[in-house]
Design brief:
mainly beta; 5-stranded antiparallel β-sheet; 4-stranded antiparallel β-sheet; about 5% helix
Length: about 350
């Protein structure tokens, strides 16, 4: 062996060894239990069920968190803080560290705590006062993400419910009764309000990655409104099925590539699929669900799997049922409070979102 080859191997073999020794990334689905909004699919004791996404969605373990027995209203994550933030029916908000698997803090507020959202730096949590509250001071709390201390309360409108911080971190979206409000997260300044959307009542919603188009569930039929988020103009109303279905819609998601839109009919136990490359989106059929429930739908970050408020796991491309979420006793489990978490070793390296947001 020549001296130059020996030097080459001496320099580069250790590096190759180090690279090959790097831990692989593991993907998990964290399901908060029990869901405060549905009875179906509950499993005791309360806490988080962790499923291995790349191993047939098999249960890895249950993390017991007794306070979850109050019923979860929201379950949002933050990469920088490597935490998930949970809200409960009893006006409680808490932070759970994903790496140490310990509750970091818990606070109870006079106002309720619904589906919350967090700024990318983890500094601020936006906490809706709840779909059950219609007082004049209904809106959201701004809470310190580090310790749970209340920073400010903002009045918006009745039944403040689902909140989303955009993927670029610049905007916070909040739905109240039939209005979608958009805030600047830097100054917490109101930018725009889109009124008379969602038909009636409160609604889940989603949007494309550039925050140009929003899709808002209807409160009286299976379908959705389409709005221009930049102008506030309502563009279309789309109904699912061959004839109007008089169920509320509680669940809407874009595939990460933004080519399809899926909506949930929890009463009818169906998912309706639409071609989102067209405007308005065109029907593509439906999938049957194994149970009813709160209604929800979102996708894995890579777009391979669709998750719902049921135990059913679908292949998003083939539309085939590929797995069912089950607890340690083999009982099917479900809820609408779940989030995708990636680990490399014991470090969190990626965190998903409760909502099925476009990621194109």
């Amino acid at each position: 062996m020549s001296r130059s080859i020996a030097l080459f191997l001496a320099c580069f073999l250790p590096l190759a060894t180090i690279v090959s020794a790097q831990p692989e990334t593991r993907r998990y689905l964290y399901l908060g239990m029990p869901d405060g909004a549905q009875e179906e699919g509950r499993s005791e004791p309360p806490g988080i069920l962790v499923f291995d996404i790349d191993n047939g969605h098999k249960l890895v373990r249950r993390i017991r968190i007794p306070i979850f027995a109050e019923g979860l209203r929201g379950f949002a994550g933050n990469l920088k803080m490597h935490r998930v933030y949970y809200s409960t029916t009893n006006h409680r908000l808490g932070a759970f560290d994903l790496e140490t698997e310990k509750v970091v803090w818990e606070k109870t507020y006079d106002a309720g705590c619904d589906r919350s959202a967090i700024t990318l730096d983890g500094g601020k949590i936006y906490v809706p006062t709840g779909w059950w509250y219609s007082g004049e001071d209904s809106g959201f709390l701004i809470v310190n993400g580090e310790n749970g201390e209340l920073i400010k309360r903002v009045h918006v409108g009745p039944q403040a419910h689902n909140s989303i911080v955009s993927l670029d971190g610049r905007r916070m979206y909040l739905c109240t009764s039939t209005m979608l409000s958009i805030f600047d997260t830097g100054a917490d300044r109101l930018i725009r309000q889109i009124k008379d959307v969602g038909e009636r009542g409160i609604f889940p919603y989603t949007m494309d990655s550039r925050q140009r188009i929003g899709y808002i569930c209807l409160g009286g039929h299976v379908g959705f409104d389409i709005v221009n988020l930049e102008t506030g103009k309502i563009l279309h109303r789309v109904l699912a099925g061959d004839a109007p279905i008089a169920h509320r819609t509680h669940g809407v998601a874009l595939t990460p590539d933004e080519r399809e839109l899926w909506i949930s009919d929890q009463v009818g136990r169906k998912l309706f699929l639409f071609d989102a490359t067209k405007m308005p989106p065109a029907p593509k059929g439906h999938l049957e669900l194994s149970q009813g429930g709160h209604g929800w739908v979102t996708f894995s970050l890579d777009g391979k799997y669709a998750w719902t408020h049921t135990p059913d796991v679908f292949d998003a491309r083939t539309k085939k049922l590929v797995a069912a979420l089950k607890d340690e006793h083999g009982k099917p489990v479900s809820g609408s409070k779940f989030i995708e978490i990636h680990f490399r070793g014991r470090k969190v390296v990626r965190v998903g979102n409760e909502f099925g947001l476009g990621r194109k």
